[in-house]
Amino acid sequence: MDPNSTAPSAPIAIERLQHAAEVLRVVAHPVRLRIIDQLKNGERTVSELFQAIGTTQSYMSQQLGLMKAKGVVHARRDGNQVHYALTNLKVVEIIHCICLRDNDAEHRPTDPVEPET
Fold first, then answer.
1. Which of 16, 74, 96, 113 lies 20 to 30 A from 47 at CA?
2. Rounded CA gap, 73 and 37, in Å?
3. Nearest-5° angle of CA 72, CA 34, CA 18?
4. Long-range contacts of 31-35 (CB under 8 A, 24+ apart)
5. Neighbours of 58 (CB within 10 A)
6. What string of DSSP letters covers 36-101?
7. Residue 53 region, left (φ>0) first, then alpha (ψ -120 to 50), else beta?
8. What phi and psi, each to the nearest 5 degrees, are found at residue 76?
9. What CATH architecture is 16-98?
10. What is the model's pTM?
């Protein structure tokens, strides 16, 4: 789907929209957004994540569990370490688009500029 296209597209199935809403609810949290930001360049351990973000290990594990349950991240065990990675990097693109839009809005004048006469 071309985001710049004005051509109408078929409606998205309700089941897909419900799944999208569930995923968006899970990622719509400042700590979980920071986890996604940490994982955008590859997998990290729970220890690496809670140290980088500045929270406790138990809180980090709880957040990762929620994200794993909705398929946002997946885990890989290596001895006593659990490595987490994003399941789909498209979530990073969505967050990036929102951040860029907000950044663009900050630099946009609030009132129309009147041409000088």
1. 96
2. 12
3. 35
4. 31/55, 31/59, 31/63, 32/63, 32/66, 32/67, 32/72, 33/95, 35/60, 35/63, 35/64, 35/67, 35/73, 35/84
5. 10
6. HHHHTTS-EEHHHHHHHHT--HHHHHHHHHHHHHTTSEEEEEETTEEEEEES-THHHHHHHHHHHH
7. alpha
8. -135, 120
9. Orthogonal Bundle (1.10)
10. 0.76
Residue spans per domain, the chain? 16-98
Tokens linked to 101: 């839009």
